[in-house]
Amino acid sequence: MFDYVLEYSRDGAVATIDLNRPDEGNKLTREMMRLLTQKLHALAGQDQLRAVVLAARGPAFCLGRDGRGETPGALSAYETREQSMAAVLDLYAAIRQVPVPVVAKVHGDALGFGAALAGACDITLAASNAKFAFSEIHHGIPPTMAMTAVMRHLSPKALAWLIYSGETVTAARAADIGLASAVLSQEAFEDEVRSFVDELASRPRRNLATIKKYQTLAAGMAPEAASDYAGALLALVRAS
Fold first, then answer.
1. What gap in Å lies between CA 108 and CA 201, rounded to an integer?
2. What's the pTM value of the predicted model, to 2 decimals?
3. How far apart are CA 61 and CA 107, in angstroms?
4. Tens of pLDDT along 5-34?
5. Among candidate residues 108, 63, 59, 113, the one with its CA nearest the CA of residue 85
6. Most C-beta atoms within 10 A of its C-beta, which of 11, 65, 69, 121?
7. Which residues contact 86 (CB under 8 A, 6 or more apart)?
8. Separation of alpha carbons 98 and 68, rounded Å
9. Element of type H or E holding 7
10. Are 130 and 107 in contact (CB under 8 A)?
11. Where are the domains of the chain?
């Protein structure tokens, strides 16, 4: 056990982290975010790992942040950035820095920070009953940090609509606009996720790591540079 609110298990080449705060909708406190970030950093250094699954206990995947105990009004702007916002941004960065795919197993609702966390993962598998929303605008908050987590996966138009409307969308709609990778039936969700992850774990680690590295870095490149980088990475893999 990693921590009572973050359950960790390892099955061969697959590591699973479960958000384990079901009575609170798996809302994450700042300390939980730091613990999750630390675990992801530790997993990033495990050479035999081929996939990381981020899952959750209870009916919801994650219903957002738990800010109880935080007193932003007593902090300077710099202190707010370093003590509060850094925990969120560091977690998103940790997901990117894991060299193999991080798979979000979204069996229930993912709202606010929960939607950003699910969308930040490399692959987001959603049960057909799951719902997603960036509802911060209804609470007078511009969700710029959540936007950084998902903007590389969504078109600007789709992201703008989600953020400005604050509307709750179905898993099918989330998949249509790129927030979710695939929608799986609620009844067969566990089996279908397990089958996908097992297949993923059967792939050579170097292939998985190369794909993630390319997708992460090439998105910001000019087309010519992205093409050259693709050729260079493939040549390195074949040479090894």
1. 24
2. 0.91
3. 6
4. 899 999 999 999 999 999 999 999 999 999
5. 113
6. 121
7. none
8. 29
9. strand 6-11
10. yes
11. 6-199, 204-239
